[in-house]
UniProtKB/TrEMBL annotation:
A Pfam family annotated for this UniProt entry: LAGLIDADG_3
Protein name: DOD-type homing endonuclease domain-containing protein
GO molecular function: endonuclease activity
Residues annotated as domain DOD-type homing endonuclease: 118-259
GO BP terms: intein-mediated protein splicing
Taxonomic source organism: Methanopyrus kandleri
Superkingdom per UniProt: Archaea
Lineage: Archaea, Methanobacteriati, Methanobacteriota, Methanomada group, Methanopyri
InterPro entries assigned to the protein according to its UniProt record, in alphabetical order: Homing_endonucl, INTEIN, Intein_endonuc_central, LAGLIDADG_dom
Length: 338
């Protein structure tokens, strides 16, 4: 169904009926509003409950703004899985998050794709650290890319400030809210230094719809991914490092990323244990690299995932797709308050 309806749709409820077996059925209609990224069904109230079953459209028009009148009735799914209910935060932090609609939050919430993208970038170029007993959240990156990130955080009601480094064409984005720093930690971001932490892809991301996973991957690759090549031959990669004692955690994380890429974009991928090295303070590090190099696989990644919060990588993506004869299938999801 996703292959047929790669569209932005509005979900309407006709009726709830009870079948002969006693099971409840939900009758719906979908109104197609326009072309969008291959992210399942994104509606004006978020992602509907996802099931593995495929709906059958009995009548599907070839033009946009066409109403699908007759969909096979589908059993009502269980309520959406909560991502965070009430984590027992201090009153001021809890109030701050509830006022912005961030608590409680479930997988079908329309802010979830945006949060997944921010969390993906945070796992790459984010830093969560404690200073004077206060949890601080910062991001590093390109000036233009971090301005995009700041805009997305502002959409969630989170204030930020940019600080430019003197020696590099890079900036830091400082998040003012301690509550949001703690919130991102609850969503799965480890504290710094990440190379000394055991963590994997957050469980709620692994259970999320493919579109949410695509946003998470776009954020992660926007931070730590790379695209190289020319003349129609390109490769994409993601390199991560850990202390040698946490090699198992690193391998699990990279394997989960590869499996998500396969699910979301159908990409074939491989892993290389790149090298071991010793830091100046005598600590042993090991790096592992995930790579995508097949022509069709590169095109699928660039079309269906891409690089978030990096203007330079976005420009290289456009050039690569032009050389490969592909095209971006849709714009990045962007939650906006109506």
């Amino acid at each position: 169904m996703r292959d047929v309806l790669d569209l932005l749709v509005t979900l309407g409820v006709h009726a709830v009926a009870t079948g002969p077996s006693g099971r409840e059925y939900l009758r719906t209609h979908l109104h197609i509003d326009g072309d969008t990224h291959v992210h399942g069904f994104l509606t004006d109230v978020g992602f509907p409950y996802h099931t593995r079953k495929r709906r059958e459209a009995h009548r599907l028009g070839t033009r946009l703004d066409h109403r699908i009148e007759r969909l096979r009735a589908e059993p009502v799914s269980d309520p959406p899985e909560p991502v965070l209910r009430d984590p027992g935060l201090p009153d001021r932090q809890g109030t701050y998050l509830r006022r912005r609609g961030l608590l409680p939050i479930a997988l079908d919430d329309h802010k979830i794709p945006l949060l997944a993208r921010v969390l993906g970038y945070a796992l790459g170029d984010g830093s969560l650290h404690e200073i004077d007993g206060q949890l601080r959240l910062t991001f590093a990156g390109e000036p233009e890319g971090l301005r995009d990130l700041a805009d997305d955080l502002a959409t969630l009601g989170v204030g930020t400030g940019l600080r430019r480094w003197d020696t590099k064409d890079m900036v830091e984005l400082h998040v003012h809210s301690r509550a949001f720093a703690r919130y991102l930690e609850l969503l799965g971001m480890p504290r710094s230094p990440k190379v000394e932490r055991v963590y994997g892809v957050p469980g709620w991301i692994l259970r999320a719809p493919p579109g949410v996973k695509a946003e998470f991957l776009a954020g992660l690759f926007g931070a730590d991914g790379w695209l190289t090549g020319s003349d129609g031959r390109y490769a994409i990669g993601l390199t991560q490092a850990k202390s040698a004692v946490y090699l198992g955690s690193l391998h699990l994380f990279m394997t989960e990323i590869g499996e998500m890429l396969e699910e979301v974009a159908g990409c074939r991928w491989g892993l290389n244990r790149e090298r071991c090295y010793t830091t100046e303070d005598g600590k042993v590090r090991v790096t592992e690299r995930l790579f995508i190099c097949g022509r069709e696989d590169v095109m699928r990644f660039l079309s269906d995932v891409g690089f978030a919060y990096s203007r330079a990588k976005a420009e290289r993506t456009e050039r690569a797709l032009k050389a490969l004869g592909g095209s971006v299938r849709g714009i990045r999801l962007k939650y906006r308050e109506k």
